[in-house]
Amino acid sequence: MSAPAEHLAAGYARCAQVTREHGTTYYWGARLLPREDRRHVFAVYTLARLADDIVDLAGPDPGPGTAAELDAFEARFREAVAAGTSEDPVLAAVATTVRERAIPDECFTRFFGAMRADLTQRTYETWDDLLGYMDGSAAVIGEMMLPVLHPSVDALAPARSLGLAFQLTNFLRDVGEDLDRGRVYVPQEDLRHFGADPHARVATPEWRALMAFEIERNRRLYREADAGLAALPPASRRCVATARVLYARILERIEAAGYDVFAERARVPTPAKAALAARMVLARDPLRLVGRDRAAERADRGWVSDDDVVLVDADGAAVSTAPKSAVHHDATPLHLAFSCYVVDDAGRLLVTTRAASKPSFPGVVTNTVCGHPHPGEPLDDAVRRRARSELGVEVTDVRLVLPRFRYRALMAGVAENEVCPVFVARAATGATSPDPEEVDDLAWVPWAEFCAEVLAGRLAVSPWCAEQVPLLAALGPDPLAWPAADRTELPPAAVLGHAVEAG
């Protein structure tokens, strides 16, 4: 059964109106599609909007009535899809779109599941936790749009990334509005790491640092989505490219406001949206416009070397290898590393300042040397290799002292996430020859002095060093007398001589 033509036309007209009123970026992008495809974009958007409104308009304390209203709305939607029509013209239009474009039913199961999560879930501990929610609230919207946009090859992953990118942009723009609804969509572990408090509603230095990190994360998602644009036919490509660039420009508005998302909502003016849509229509190749967008810029991380690192699971067992530059980003997977504290016979620690050009924690004061073992390389050999190559220092008496140290730290657009056994070693000679690409400065500092300054908070050091120093201080006042740890306590991937097959 299908809806009468006039009834259906009224439903699609209402969907277009809803999209124009509430989703102007979607609207201006969809305007570049043929009418037949355009109406389907409006229908998918409107379904999502109506469900979202049920949850959002309930305020910070939605009661059982809100859950019942959401359940009733989903039931009406599913009845409309089953029947092919509905007395409600909007649901008749949505049902027609779902049936004509064969949008999988499991997409809607995940979507409504995410909507229900908003009734009870107020915060998300980690980025992975947030991604679990966004699978049903955002990534799935990209999946729903694929049958409408007619990609020539499999574009599922880019479509999901674009849905995630759009929603993360919304989350960063709407922090204040979400607080009013009792929700915080920024991962709690990120807030703790930067010391940022959204409830203060003030763009403090800590808040700005947090937002800079999340915006870089957001831009990575846009870049991942860009990989699917070439798979779309010309009209769909212009549509998606327009929406993608417009949404990404919200991030630039946030930056221009000094990351203050509390004082005023970041918006791209309607004339600017219309102008970009016109440029997309006239552009010979819309991908060039996307490529010039700031979110498409691939920052040169400036890795001195791009050796493979060993990726590990939560238990420290090796799972695969990957190039350093490919895995170090805002969601760096857990991998194997090491830290070493090099001391001389007088008990002085060689303290280094990381080069300002380094992509990860540039310019910070830290312990002597850190790095990643090559796949299959014994950690002791990796320590000697890095001390020699970074500092020109030969070391002896390499001893394991903290076998299971692990940390996670964030800075700019890079997260460090390492299983990082800690060593102490003796300098065979006081001579040094630092590599300027790795080290800006170094100094021999009495361990007692360095330790006291770090513990008192008077010396700002790298996050891993700040966590390691209290643990090392507990081993005794003389680094040369720190007891060697039992090597059987090393995580499995760090067992000497352990070989890892590339994954």
Topology:
Layout: H1 5-22, H2 24-30, H3 35-56, H4 64-83, H5 89-100, H6 105-117, H7 127-149, H8 156-173, H9 175-180, H10 188-194, H11 205-226, H12 234-256, H13 270-282, H14 286-291, E1 308-312, E2 318-323, H15 324-327, E3 335-336, E4 338-343, E5 348-354, E6 365-366, E7 369-371, H16 379-391, E8 395-402, E9 406-411, E10 414-419, E11 422-427, E12 439-446, H17 447-455, H18 463-473
Parallel strand pairs: 3-10, 4-11
Antiparallel strand pairs: 1-2, 4-7, 5-6, 5-12, 8-11, 9-10
Helix pairs in contact: 1-2, 1-3, 1-5, 2-12, 2-13, 3-5, 3-6, 3-7, 4-5, 6-7, 7-8, 8-11, 8-12, 11-12, 12-13
Task: Summarize it.
This protein has helices spanning 5-22, 24-30, 35-56, 64-83, 89-100, 105-117, 127-149, 156-173, 175-180, 188-194, 205-226, 234-256, 270-282, 286-291, 324-327, 379-391, 447-455, 463-473; strands at 308-312, 318-323, 335-336, 338-343, 348-354, 365-366, 369-371, 395-402, 406-411, 414-419, 422-427, 439-446.
